[in-house]
């Protein structure tokens, strides 16, 4: 190991910040600066302030509101590469294609009504071409067109009792399959375990099903860039989290289980060579080789703290009303060589989160962003403002 959170096999000598600054960077005092630029008072007690990295806006949307949803969606052809951005607000999912963005705000290319239950949006997945959305709930999975028509529906066995247990779905990279996590165990269905299904996206036919050894309260899936594998983590609350990758093999799912019960899946690198996890205890972020899970590098939360913030045992405060700084279950890959790790915390008067940009080749912390990003993997990310409008950003 090199230091307390690096491995020689991944990190070479440290490199300074060397990204070129574009002609129109956004600095803290710029009128183009995005929300959340103030350094949180609570964070200042613990964290290195670091450099606020210059960013530039690439495109914006009109506010995503019920009024936007009532206007006709703008037809578009989604190119290869990062697909349309999906954003769910108040039971409505908006699809935005930034590929042809110009000087005017971009209108949604599709709008999907998910009903009167905003919670259902957590189990919704937008097709790569933005042509439909699949929603998975405790009771069913269904595919909806933008006009509200139901393409197909898969009813689930009714729950035996009321319980937490959130279904999850994700499209394969080419949009031909939908992978569904069904939380059967918490809902008293079946033989005591959960289920992982692969469904034909065109007609809802169940192609394969796998019995998971989990009692999940929820799940998170990420499609691998190879177009073959799907990664899944299943959270069991205080009992931990379990991580798998699977691939369709004929009419069966071939599943590999990782040997951990304390790593939460965050993201897969755009080149597919690695994936990112955060500890269930929120004490570190680890980058692993795919598919075997070998640890390539680790960033402990102490890496982001000021020397005075942590004592020898890692404690930062004896006040029970203070939540110590921790690595949040968010962030991911900005691009194949760069990631975002978010440090969060809470005091009696303040909640805060600081996204840090880290260089994976050197292990250097390049600086921080002003607000939590929704990463796209191609060097860009989106944020939403107080009026419901999205902005697409890049560094520099």
Description of the structure:
The protein is mainly β and 396 residues long. 2% of the residues lie in helices and 40% in strands. Strand 17 (263-268) and strand 18 form a beta hairpin.
What attributes characterize this protein structure?
2% helix, single chain, 40% strand, 2 helices, 396 residues, 4-stranded antiparallel beta sheet, 5-stranded antiparallel beta sheet, mainly beta
Question: What's the quick description here?
Answer:
The longest helix is centred in the first third of the chain and has 5 residues, at 66-70.
What value does the average pLDDT take? 82
Number of strands: 28
**Helix and strand run:** HEHEEEEEEEEEEEEEEEEEEEEEEEEEEE
Structural classification: mainly beta
**Percentage of residues in strands:** 35-45%
Rg on CA atoms, Å: 21 Å
General form: globular
- Note the total helix count: 2
Distance between the termini: 33 Å
The biggest sheet, with number of strands, parallel, antiparallel or mixed sense and barrel status, is:
5 strands, antiparallel
Return residue spans where pLDDT drops below 50 for at least 5 consecutive residues.
1-37, 74-81, 312-317
Helix content: under 10%
